[in-house]
Amino acid sequence: MAATLRVAPSTLREVAAAQTDVSSYVSGMGTGTQLGTAAAGLTELESAAACQLAAELLDKTAAVVSKELSAHAERLTQAAERYTATDQSLAQRLRNIAE
Q1: What Pfam families has UniProt attached to this entry (predicted)?
Q2: What per-residue string of b and e applies to 59-86 under the rule 16 or more CB within 10 Å gives b?
Q3: Which one is predicted more confidently, 6 or 66?
């Protein structure tokens, strides 16, 4: 037996807002920058280059994650808007039939 699908546009909007917050947090973490700063203190060690590479990868990864979270949040918002618009349209049609 299949589960019943329930859609709550308000919940979709709440999740979208939470994902937007997480996206902002991830993009502002600055982990790569911090690691790059640490690498500057290791200039005489071979691990400095590894730290710098890791810093660049962390920054790129954070940017991708942030972008994907923002895109998904936008899709959730659009879905909520479509569900709401469809609900209102169908409700109006039913009212018109009832009149």
Answers
A1: T7SS_ESX_EspC (PF10824)
A2: beebeeebeebbeebeebbeebeeeeee
A3: 66
